[in-house]
Amino acid sequence: QGRIANPFKKIRLDLKKIYYGSYMLEITGEMTAEREQSTAVYRLLYDALSLLQETSEPEKVARWFESKMLHSLGYLLHTSACVSCRAPYLSGRPAAMSFRLGGVLCPKCSLKHENPPVASRASLDVLDFLRQLEPACLDTFALPGAVARELGALSESYITHITGRALRTSRFLK
What we know:
The structure is a single chain. The chain is mainly alpha-helical. The protein is built from 7 helices and 3 strands; from the N terminus they run H-H-H-H-E-E-H-E-H-H.
């Protein structure tokens, strides 16, 4: 017989937190195989829901969760060099992305892809930072709204590419 370790009561009292919690649960469900045991993934989900319960910035928790989940499942977006030709990524300029190849494309290689998504250097830097950040440190930095929205759209598109299905809960977050 099981028991509820944490009912996350503060999440249940805030509609915005309910939406973000549902979003994180859907990502976990879509990206893990049914009946797959993954202590690390479920620990990450627990940590994210615990952070969500206490935060006034649920979007920042969601961006942290997305970056950590993608990284822990082996879907790291490479941001330091072109994933096609290995040319170093020139910081300061937006980067075209290839979800199929898993990272940034140099200007020359991006011409070979039709309408690749584009990410700012600021968003890519924050993505790299978030995936290394411990949960206890999440409230120590500010996440600009424009970067948070860009990262959210990028992560959602990448997750859709990986799973082959659009996330249903993301429509509530827009």
